[in-house]
Amino acid sequence: MEFSYIAYDNAGKKTKGRLEANSQKDVVAYLRDTQMTPLDIREATQGLFHLKFLSTIKNSDIVLFTRQLSSMILTGLTLMDALNILKKQSDKAEMKTMIEALTSDISEGKTLSEALQNHPKHFSDVYIALIKAAETSGLLDKILERLADNLERSEDLKKKIKSALFYPIIV
User: Fold this and answer.
1) Which of 87, 126, 129 is nearest to 111 (CA)?
2) By 3-state DSSP, what share of the chain in percent is helix, strand and coil, each rounded to 5?
3) Which residue among 78, 87, 136, 139 is the one 20 to 30 A from 9 at the CA level?
4) Parallel, antiparallel, or unpaired for β 14-20 and 37-43?
5) What average pLDDT is seen over the chain?
């Protein structure tokens, strides 16, 4: 079930969000574990025009995630701090859920590459292998930056191919 919540964080800032949980008690427990004070928790109702395919994680979201993670690690933030910031900044519930899963796997002692293996739909084998190599070499920020560049080029190429094929389809 999906629940929507309103809670206060440690700084007293009011936050809203959605969580997938089995019960309202699970949502309360999660919010307290993340040091938030729940104000209101309700079962989320999806409107008549809620389109699930519009809220899925796209390749452009993964590109942005990779670019931002690279920048944050380059500035000296720890991996966990960077992921927590990205989770707070994300507008998409699916992206937040994926980042939460990554942070929980890493906090359990897994490496980033091991945590990414749980999301094969969003991260390719090459992506995971490069992250694994970056972890062993200590060049995670540089590898993430190169990955983001390559992913952006790939997205641009896909767009060019689609636009080039669009005209013959119309004709």
Assistant:
1) 129
2) 60, 10, 25
3) 78
4) unpaired
5) 85
What tokens appear for 61 in the block?
A: 């979201």
Tally the residues of the chain: 171
The structure tokens listed for 11 are 């700084």
0.70 surpassed by pTM: no
Could you tell me which residues come within 8 angstroms of residue 11 by beta carbon, excluding any fewer than 6 positions away? none
Beta-strand (E) ranges in the chain? 2-8, 14-20, 37-43
Distance between CA atoms of 122 and 142, rounded to whole angstroms? 21
Distance CA 161, CA 76 (A): 38
Residue 33 token pair: 């574990």
> Residue type for 37, please?
T
Q: What distance in Å separates the CA atoms of residue 138 and residue 115, rounded to the nearest whole number?
A: 17
**Ramachandran angles phi, psi of 38, nearest 5°:** -70, 135
Neighbours of 2 (CB within 10 A): 13
Q: Are 148 and 70 in contact (CB under 8 A)?
A: yes
In the block, residue with structure tokens 């025009």: 49
In the chain, the percentage of residues whose pLDDT exceeds 90 is: 34
